[in-house]
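Key result, reporting period 2: structure in, sequence out.
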């Protein structure tokens, strides 16, 4: 697979991206197998007991399945609570508004608005979102329900439709799912292995951000969060190395990475003479960072104290009532949902009801995020719909029992689950493959023979995506670059705080790393906006700030920080605070005093401060 990936990389970036995302890794096969097993069992139960909405039951497995068993159980319990609230609220609303569109339609709009507003502002937003989604979806089917009794029965069945796959998924993950700590250790091992290989080949440029994105979510899951933090520090320090790294330094860094990997695997490093330590400040800082990492990894497997500075959990975000972006996001989603509902109602085309589902699940904060998810949903829906269509035409006519249907479900769910276990850049396509396939295949309790249903549902997905894109790019368009700008400002503040407060170095380093991870994510998403939004000026270069963070981590490392002149870095920290404010406001960065010189013969600390000032100059000029 590695050879195939290298061959593909020489062809096109897109195929290289697919090869990287779909490549096998430790634990991925078992994760896809758990999803496939839960889907198969769920479909079999739905067919045997004739539970309605079998397609949604199978899809619930994908929605509740997470990387580790604890996260899966948390998501499943939240889903169960959400459907319980939704059923109660739907039945209560039905007594008031079931037969009166003048009440029902405003109630749909208000429920949608509150659900989407809570996603952005409320700690229990995901539960409110799922409850709102179910309530609105049920209100949209009122026109097709012949009587109040049928509507009540269908609503009560929804609880079973959600709870059965939730319980199945919980049971399978409790029996065979990995613990969060094991998943974190696996992630650290993967990063160290890839780092060793990349250093040996001299190909770490462009990959440091990817490794940081893998590690940041693992801090909360690891039994030894300090080790994850030390590895993140080392990855930021490597940003300070000028490229290409000399062969002897690559050899030394590779040795340090292998030593850490050996400590993680509780084995002795193969006897070899470590290369001599270089006198360059980045080399001294990297040596210390890897030594600290090796020391943390060599400790006992007992849980280490996690964060010394825990932020208190708040029920609402601080700007819930002051930031207009929250209510604008909710209003845009509400408008899109009401548009698609009105269109398919006026056209008398109830098969397009999947457009409402699309609008709920494709709604994200920025245009870049929405377009990114749109592309994943379209591609996944087309692939899943195509598989369902081919199955209806060529396979289902020959099926005679539930066992054969379960086998087909297992195969397709395994394929979709493999895609769904990719990174966030591709995983949503796997969910949409499964959604389109189940909607097309599981139409009734007998083999599906009508391609019209499949056509309508796929068209509904496409229609919902188009409406969402038009609404989000027209009304109060929120660019991913705006959120990139906020993340860059946070990174600059973290760097300034690290310069000023050596005592709080651990907290400030973590704040900086998390801000850089967010910035990398929004920088990728901003590429999907193309020319849909006006170009923003005075935006600092992300890679320049990453190099600046690396230079700061070097100067603030223990081997050098004691010798760094506090008076020399104080003006630099002041400039960074002003630059953070200017970046957040979208204005030009303040000028830098033109007195930076490269010191090559001074102490390592002096050289580190000199390189730090030069990187600040690069950041200042990058936004002009």
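The corresponding designed sequence is given below.
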């Amino acid at each position: 697979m590695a050879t195939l990936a290298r061959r593909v990389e020489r062809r096109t970036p897109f195929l290289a991206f697919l090869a990287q995302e779909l490549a096998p890794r430790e634990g991925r096969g078992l994760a896809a197998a758990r999803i496939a097993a839960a889907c198969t069992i769920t479909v079999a139960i739905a067919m045997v007991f004739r539970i309605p909405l079998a397609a949604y039951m199978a899809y619930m497995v994908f929605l509740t399945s997470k990387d580790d068993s604890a996260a899966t159980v948390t998501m499943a319990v939240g889903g169960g609570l959400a459907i319980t609230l939704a059923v109660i609220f739907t039945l209560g609303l039905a007594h008031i508004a079931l037969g009166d569109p003048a009440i029902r339609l405003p109630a749909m709009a208000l429920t949608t608005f509150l659900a989407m507003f809570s996603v952005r502002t409320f700690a229990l937003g995901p539960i409110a979102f799922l409850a709102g989604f179910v309530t609105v979806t049920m209100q949209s089917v009122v026109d097709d329900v012949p009587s109040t009794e049928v509507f009540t029965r269908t609503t009560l069945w929804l609880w079973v439709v959600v709870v059965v796959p939730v319980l199945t998924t919980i049971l399978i993950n409790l029996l065979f799912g990995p613990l969060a700590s094991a998943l974190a250790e696996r992630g650290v091992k993967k990063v160290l292995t890839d780092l060793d290989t990349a250093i040996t080949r001299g190909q770490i440029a462009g990959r440091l951000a990817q490794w940081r994105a893998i590690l940041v979510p693992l801090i909360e899951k690891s039994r030894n969060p300090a080790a994850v933090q030390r590895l993140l520090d080392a990855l930021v320090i490597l940003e300070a190395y000028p490229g290409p790294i000399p062969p002897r330094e690559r050899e030394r860094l590779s040795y340090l990475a292998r030593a850490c990997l050996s400590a993680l695997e509780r084995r002795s490093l193969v006897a070899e003479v470590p290369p001599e330590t270089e006198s360059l400040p980045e080399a001294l800082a990297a040596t210390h960072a890897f030594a600290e990492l090796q020391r943390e990894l060599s400790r006992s497997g007992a849980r280490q104290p996690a964060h010394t500075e825990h932020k208190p959990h708040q029920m609402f975000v601080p700007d819930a009532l002051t930031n207009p972006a929250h209510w604008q996001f909710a209003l845009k989603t509400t408008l899109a949902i009401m548009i698609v509902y009105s269109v398919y109602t006026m056209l008398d085309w109830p098969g397009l009801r999947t457009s409402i589902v699309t609008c709920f699940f494709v709604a994200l904060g920025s245009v870049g995020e929405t377009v990114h998810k749109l592309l994943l949903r379209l591609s996944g829906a087309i692939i899943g719909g195509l598989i369902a269509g081919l199955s209806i035409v060529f396979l289902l006519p020959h099926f005679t029992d539930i066992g054969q249907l379960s086998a087909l479900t297992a195969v397709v769910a395994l394929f979709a689950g493999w895609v769904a276990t990719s990174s966030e850049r591709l995983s949503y396509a796997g969910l949409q493959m499964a959604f389109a396939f189940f909607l097309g295949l599981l139409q009734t309790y007998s083999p599906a023979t009508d391609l019209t249903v499949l056509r309508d549902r796929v068209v509904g997905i496409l229609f919902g995506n188009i409406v969402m894109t038009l609404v989000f790019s027209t009304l109060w368009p929120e660019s991913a670059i705006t959120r990139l700008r906020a993340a860059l400002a946070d990174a600059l503040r973290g760097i300034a705080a690290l310069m000023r407060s050596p005592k709080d170095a651990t907290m400030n380093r973590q704040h900086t790393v998390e801000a850089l991870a967010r910035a990398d994510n929004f920088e990728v998403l901003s590429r999907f906006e193309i020319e849909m939004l006006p170009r923003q000026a005075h935006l600092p270069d992300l890679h320049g700030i990453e190099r600046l963070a690396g230079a700061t981590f070097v100067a603030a490392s223990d081997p050098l920080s004691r010798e760094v002149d506090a008076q020399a870095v104080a003006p630099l920290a002041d400039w960074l605070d002003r630059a953070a404010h200017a970046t957040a406001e979208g204005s030009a960065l303040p000028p830098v005093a033109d007195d930076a010189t490269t010191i090559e013969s001074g102490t390592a600390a002096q050289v580190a401060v000199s390189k730090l000032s030069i990187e600040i100059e690069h950041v200042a000029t990058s936004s002009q």
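The two ends are 44 Å apart (CA to CA). The CA atoms of residues 139 and 437 lie 25 Å apart. This case is discussed further under Risks and Mitigation.
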